[in-house]
Amino acid sequence: MSSFVLQTTNQSLAHRLWRYATASRDGTFFYPEGICEEAVEVAPCTDKVGPCLVLFSGCKLAPAELNTWIYAGASSNAAVVRAYWLGASPGKACSREDLVAQLRAAGPPPDGGALRLQCAPRSLEGWLADQLGPAFNLQPVKPTWVLNVVCMAADGGEDEDGQQQREQREHRRRPRILYSLQPASSLYNYSPVKDKRIPDQLSKAAGKLAEALQACGLQLTSGVAVDLGAAPGGWTHVLAQHARRVIAVDPAPLDPRALACPAVTHLACKAEDAVDAIKGMVGEAGVDLLVSDVNRHPSQVIGMMRPLLPLLHPGAAVILTLKFHGKSAGREAEFERRLADELGPEFGGVRLLWLLANTQHEQTCVAWKAAAPPAGAAANGVAAGL
Ligand SMILES: C[S@@+](CC[C@H](N)C(=O)[O-])C[C@H]1O[C@@H](n2cnc3c(N)ncnc32)[C@H](O)[C@@H]1O
User: How far is Cα 383 from Cα 226, in angstroms, rounded to an integer?
Assistant: First the structure.
């Protein structure tokens, strides 16, 4: 069992990675199996300002498996800037000085190979390089080894702290710095994986649907999907790679790359005017997934979807983007309740996902149609977690 730390481009993304980890027990498949037993967000939750770090422990994956997942993920590739692999038993230091003392005592890597420093915060790298001196063969490129160092505090140092705070911290005996010497092959964003795999996405919006499908583990291989407000076609293009048939509804034109997918049919009209045509097209087969990314109030979007809801199979899903006035964080329970009321008792589960691909002002609603109205339907759908 190993530990690792993921660093993101902003604190809100670190918060969302942490939320995924806590929600994974509740049917979210965003992470690969065995990724961790526990995740801890290092910093104030949801703040923009922070060290942007999440510590994962109890990981059963190998470093290469973790790196492959980061590269291939719908949004993880963009959100994660660094991964610090800490191995099974990371070293622990109480201060920068303690870290230097421990590293000097351990000495350079056994083969004298080139060593790259990878520290959070980055500003520690220069300071640490000066402290370690020429006895360590420090090389930022083509290293044999990487020394991962993560300060579990925003400033990463004790220099500016008062004596009293330092004493209190030492009293609590919480090591503030984790570090680990690893072979360079454990390094994220480094050879041999030179080419970052950018998923084949037609628009930025496409990342939202790709991530929602990944997060919910939705498989549609033989299904029918209906995309309301489809233009220019990012979501339609993603759906065409998953579903047998995609009905894309939007008065605006679709990108030729989406139109070129054999699974795609474009109805160039408003969703309200497309109901009969959709019914005729899907017939008895029904609909497996109904999605909407229309930029309107959630009640209006659900009103637009309502005539189509009877076409959904039991177990079929609805995915829609919710635009919030103001920040979305912390308003999930209220909106889950409101959406569950709007969708009606047939929808047994309503969840809001704050995707990595969502902005601060939007979240993604996922709901499943139940086989029959669930018992206690009034309490329908208020799901914990994401
Ligand atoms: C944000 S864009 C959708 C982007 C799309 N998901 C993508 O990935 O390319 C919103 C779209 O909703 C469409 N729209 C707005 N009201 C609509 C309605 N009543 N029926 C169908 N489409 C509508 C607009 O024409 C616009 O193209």
Answer: 25
Report the alpha-carbon distance of residue 137 to residue 145 in Å, rounded. 10
Burial of 334 (0-12, 13-18, 19+ CB in 10 A): exposed
Sign of CA dihedral 264, 269, 275, 277: negative
Per-residue pLDDT tens over the stretch 258-302: 999 999 999 999 999 999 999 999 988 899 999 999 988 888 899
Distance 184 CA to ligand 1 centre (A): 46
Beta strands in 219-299 (DSSP E): 224-228, 245-249, 264-267, 287-292
Q: What would the pLDDT profile of 32-89 be if each residue is shown by its tens digit?
A: 889 999 999 987 777 777 889 999 999 999 999 999 999 887 788 889 999 999 999 9
- Delineate the domains of the chain, giving CATH numbers in brackets: 2-186 (3.30.2130), 206-382 (3.40.50.150)
Question: Rounded to an integer, what distance in angstroms lies between the CA atom of residue 147 and that of residue 131?
Answer: 14
- Residues lining ligand 1, judged by CB closer than 6 Å? 203, 205-206, 228-235, 249-252, 270-272, 293-295, 304
Across-strand partners of 87? 3
Measured in angstroms, how far is the CA atom of residue 249 from the centroid of ligand 1? 8
The residue behind tokens 């079929």 is 316
